[in-house]
Every structure is written in structure tokens, then in C-alpha cells.
């Protein structure tokens, strides 16, 4: 199943947010999207998930425009975990995950024990089975985030779009979640802020800046000190290992001149 974006342009209220964005997501790959705040990662993912429509260009799923697929057909193929996904409903943790089964239910396919088993497994995979009866509003940010991922896993869509999936998670859960997602037999597109996580888990990385993709390739190719300086304004050393991996070490900026310090010294 191939998801592609071609020549996407998207603007709001006369402001251009995305300009001529093209991206082919390879089946089975883990594609990271990195870029500074406001560079367009969420906007691109929303277009690729079909919840927003581009003013120009198209997103295609297996060569057919997304707009030609029905909502349920898209939901069976693409699971999207949004950055600030929230629910105001008074539901339990388990019920939140059960929502992932919605695209598979219908008059002829009511809820079954197979759905229960899928939900059980998704809860276990994100280490939340013990919280299944807890009410949503009593859960911490990280616990909710893990349930959003469980809901997406329960959806059993072959393509998973994750907008900052490690938001709110402690470092142990960040790494185990990325590993969990990586181990699934899925095509994954994830917006990530942690460049070392992107280097560790992604097959390819797309770098966004000012609403455009300015680089696309393997982590070792894309994560270059000069590019990171240009895009993020940070100074880094990139350590490379013999297996083709890389690790980014950030350098502390030089102290600002005294006159620019926010708090004047007495
Ligand atoms: N509905 C909207 N109306 C107006 N501006 C919008 C809208 N959606 C996004 N934007 C603007 O578009 C730009 C890109 O936003 P987007 O959320 O896609 O960036 P991002 O790369 O995901 O940022 P972050 O890393 O902060 O999550 C931002 O400047 C944002 O303010």
C-alpha cells in the first residue's frame, strides 16, 4: 500500500503553509518528518491523513486520490494519531482503544470476540492493560498518549501516521514506543522532534523548513551538521558508527553578550 503526496500546496487565510510538497512513502518503511516549530509537519500529516484537503496537488493511496476513497475506506488503511488528540467524553481507557475498531464495524460485522482480543493486545502492547477501567480524565498525559497509540494499533490499518508520538512520555516509554511501532509490520510516518530518536528508528527522514521539504534520505545522509545549523540554528557534532548509524551531540551555544542578557546584573 503506497501513500504519496504530489505538489501539495496548502494555505490558510492567505498565508501559505505548505508549498509544493511531494513525498512517496515506501511500503513498510519508518519515515520520520523533522523540522522546526511551525515548519508544516502537522499540516502535511493532516493532508496525508485526508482530514484536510490541499488547494493544489494531491495525496494518493495506491495511485488513487485520497479524495476518491470513502472515509471508512481511508480509516481502514490509515490510522492517524494527532498531536493534541483529546476526548471530552466520559469514557474508560479501554473504550478509548475500542474506538479504533470503528472502521471495521457495520450492520453485518458487529463487535465480536475477535475485536475484544485485538483491543486486549493493543492495551498490552502499550503497557496499559492494568489501566483499562480507568476513566480518561483521571489519566496522565503520557498514559493518554499510550492509549492513543493503542487505539491506532487496534485500528489495524497498514499505514500509521503519528504526530509527535512520544509527546508526554518518559524516556523509557519514548524508546519502547518507537521500538514497538518499528517492530510492527506497518508503514509508519512520524513527526519527531528528537533527532537522535529519528536517527535510531527511521529508515528515511524528511526535513521540513518553511512549508517545504528541504532534504529527504537516510538518517546518515540527512543529519549533517551544516543542515542542522541551517534548519534548526544549532551547532552539533555528528558521530557516525560502522553500522551506518549516527548520533547527534549538541554543542552549548556561546554565552550571549552581556547587554543582551534579559536580567541586568545589579
Ligand atoms: N488552521 C490554521 N490557521 C492558521 N494558521 C495555521 C493553521 N494550521 C497551521 N497553521 C500555521 O501553519 C504553520 C505550520 O503549522 P504546523 O502545525 O503544520 O507546524 P509543525 O511543523 O507541526 O509545528 P510544531 O513543531 O510546532 O508542532 C504554523 O505557522 C501554524 O501557525
TrEMBL record:
Gene3D superfamilies recorded: P-loop containing nucleotide triphosphate hydrolases (3.40.50.300)
UniProt organism field: Shinella yambaruensis
Name of the protein in question: Histidinol-phosphatase
Record's function text: Part of the ABC transporter complex HmuTUV involved in hemin import. Responsible for energy coupling to the transport system.
Domain ABC transporter stretches: 3-235
Keyword Translocase: yes
Keywords: ATP-binding, Nucleotide-binding, Translocase, Transport
Species lineage: Bacteria, Pseudomonadati, Pseudomonadota, Alphaproteobacteria, Hyphomicrobiales
Alphabetical list of InterPro entries matching this protein: AAA+_ATPase, ABC_transporter-like_ATP-bd, P-loop_NTPase
Pfam families linked: ABC_tran
